[in-house]
Amino acid sequence: MDFIEQPDTPGVEVLSTQDMLELLDSESNEEMEFEAPVAYSSLASHIMQEFRINKDAKRNSLVEDDITNSLEQYNGQYGRKDLAKIIAEGGSTIYMQLTAIKARNASSWMRDILLAANEKSWTIKPSPMADLPNDLKESISQSINEEFQELADAKREEDAKIAEAKAAKEAQSAQGVPGGQPQEQEQPQQPQAGATTQAGTAQETVRDLNQEKRDILISVYEEIQKEAKFNMMFMERQIDDQFLAGGYYKALGTFIDDFCIFPTAFIKGPVITMKPKLVWENGEPVVTKEYCFQDKRVSPYDIYPSPEASSLQEGSLCEHLRLSRTEVFDLSEAPGYDAGAIYKVLEDTTEGSSTPYWIDTGIESDKADQEKRGDQFEANRNVIHGIHFFGSVSTRILKEWGVECDQLASAHPEKQFEVEAIMLNEEVVKCVLNDDPLLRRPYYSASYQTRPGSIWGRSLPMLMEDIQRMCNATARALSNNMALSSGPQIEIYIDRLADDGEIENIRPFKIWQLTTDPSGGSGRAVNFFQPTSNASELLSVYEQFESRADDATGIPRYAYGNEKTGGAATTASGLAMLFESSSKMIKDAIRNIDAGVIIPRVEYQFYWNVILNEIDFSGDVQVKALGSTTLTVKGAEQLRRNEFLQITANPVDQQLMGDGRAELLREMANDLGFIEDIVPSRLDQKKNQKKAQENAAAAQENEMAMAEQKAKLNNLGAETQIEGQKEMAGANNNVQQMQEDGKNQRHTESMAMKEREIQAFNDQNGYRLMQQSSANTIDNDTKKEMQSKELSVKLATGSGI
Known about the structure:
The chain is of the alpha+beta class. It is built from 23 helices and 14 strands. A five-stranded antiparallel sheet has the order 6-7-8-9-10. A three-stranded antiparallel sheet has the order 5-4-11, with helices on one face. Helix 5 runs antiparallel to helix 8 and helix 6 packs antiparallel against helix 7. The radius of gyration is 56 Å and the shape is elongated.
C-alpha cells in the first residue's frame, strides 16, 4: 500500500484515500463465516432464524447506515469515508454543529410540551357512551321506569280530572238550553267538538310525557358520564403514580432525545420487575423489593423488526439484550423463567467473553465509538447478550420446549401462537404465551417524519443532511481561505541567493543577501503578494444555507432565542404569529409521539390495572393525548377562560353556575402551577356552603326572634300609647268640662246680672209710673226735685247709657 505524509502532521503516516476506501468497503461487505453449533432446541433454532432474517433486512435496507450517519451528524463527526477524502485533500477538518443545535432545541421544545411541570401529556376520559357494569345499568333502568311510571300516573290523574270537569261543563251547557233539551241540529256538533278537544288534550299529554321521558333519559345519561368520569379520575391518578414509580417520564425524556436524532425512536414498557425500595421500620432503614411497571429506552441499534411489518405489532420482533451477570441471576427468581437454563448460561459465560457469533450484528464497533464507551470489546466486557423475541411459534415447537397450557392441549401441531421468549447466548430461558387480550407487545415507536408503510422514518439530521454538508464545505473553504489570506505569500528565486540562509524563517529586520540579476534587468529576487480573501462571499453562502435549515427542520432560529431576526419577528405580535406558523412541523412530530407512544402506552397500563386489580369496570375508555394540542390550545384556552370569567362576573350568572365557577377557577389555578390550593376543594366547598346555610338559618332565627321581640315592644308601646291617649283624652274632657262649667257659670252670672238689670229697669219703670201718677199733686218745685233724683238713679245703675 502507498502511504502519504501530511504537511501539517509531520511524521504521521496514513493510508491513501483509495486504499482507505477499498479497505472500508471490504470491511463493510465482508461477512464472517461461522460454523453453527449442532445441539440447538427447535425453539432456539426458530428464534435464531427469525433474528437473522430481521438483521439482514435491516442491514440491506441501509437502516443501520442511516442510524450511524444521524448519530455522527449529531455528534459533529465526519464518517470514515468522508474524513478520509477530506484528509486526502488537506486543509481544515472543521465540522459546524448546526444539526446538534437544531436537535437540542427541538428536544427542549418537546420536553416543555410533553414533560411540563404539574401537567401530564395525557388524560383518560370515558367514551361518549360510557359502558358501566350491568348492576349499575339495571339500577339506573329501574329508576327510569319508576320515575316514568310515577309521571304517567300523575298525568293520567290530571287528565281524568280535566275530562270530568269538561263533562260537567258540557252537561251544564246542555241543561241551559230552552225547553230543557238540546236542539236536534246541535246534537251531532257537540260530540265532535268534545272529541276534538279530547284528542288535542291527549296529544298534548303524549308530547308532555315524551318530553319528560327525554329529560329523564338525558339526566340519566349525564349522570352515567359523570360517574364514569369520576371512576376515570382515580384510574388516571393510579397510572400516573405507576409511571412515576417505573421511570416512565425519565424514559420518555430519553426517548425524546432519540426522537430528534435517529430515524425512529423506541421505548419499552411495562417491564414488570422487582425494584429495591428503602423503607423505615422501627426507626431503621430496611431495603425491600416490590414489583413495578418499569419503562426504558431501547436503542435503535438493538431493535430488529420483521421486514414485512409496518408496525411493531406485526410480524416477528427481536430486541438485542445486553444484561449484566447480576441481572441474569436475578431472572432466575422471577416467575416464568427457567432457572436451570439461566445457571447454565452463567456457567458457560466467562468474564470478558465476546458477543456470540449468531448475535453479532457488525455494528458493535460503530455503536461503541459513537456512544463513547471505548471499543467494542471494552463496551461488551462482562455483558451477556441475548434476544427478546415476540412472534408466532407452532404448537409442536412449543410442546417440544415444554410449554404447557390448556390452549396447546387440543391445538393442531402447526397452529401458530403468539409468544414471548428470551434467549441468552444459546439457551432459551423463558417462553410463555402472550397473555395480552389483544396480543399487544410492550414496544412503541415514533419518527420525526414518518415513511408510509415502514417502521423506519426520517430523522431530523436526515432532513438537513445536505444543508449540513454544504455548511461544512463552506466552513472548510472559509477556514482554508482565511488561513491563506491571513499573511503574505513569498516568491523567491533561489539561484539569486548569495548565501545558504534559511528561507523558511521570516522575521522582522531580516537581511536578504542576493546576487545580481543575470539577465541584467531589475527583477526582484524576493516578491511578496497577498492572497485574495473570500470571507465575505463564503459567509454569505453559509448564512443562506443556515437559514434553509429552518425550513427543512421546522426549528426557526428565533424559537431558541437567536437575536438575529428581522421583519415581522421584530415585534411581539409578529413574533407570536411566526412562532405559531413555525410550530406546525413540531406539532406534527408531536402527533407522531402521541399516536405511536403515549396513547398505546397509557391504554396498555389501563388494561393491566383492570386485569390485575379486578376492577369492576368494562374498560370503555378513551385516552386523549394533550401534547399536540398544547401549542395551539393552551394560550387561547387561557384567554377564553379569562373572558368567560369576566362575562359571568354578575350575580345572575354566578347563581346559575353554582359550583361550576369554582371548577373553572380550580382548573385555572392548576394550569398556573400553584402548589397550594387557592380554590377550596369540593368537600371544603360543601362544608363552607353547609356552614353558610347554618349561619344563615341562625341569622334568620335571630332576626325572627328580634322581630318578635320588636313586635312585642311595639304592642306594649301601642298599649302604653293608647293608655296615655286615654288619659290625655280624660284630661282633655276634664278641661273641657271645667271650661264648660266656667262657661256655664259665667253664663249664669251673666243671666243673673241681666235679670238684676231687668229688675232694676222694671223697678225704675214702676217708680216712673208712680211718679207720673203723683205728678198732678206735686208742685213744680217738687217735680224738679224728683227729676233730679231720677237722673241720679240712672247714673248709678247705668241704664239708659
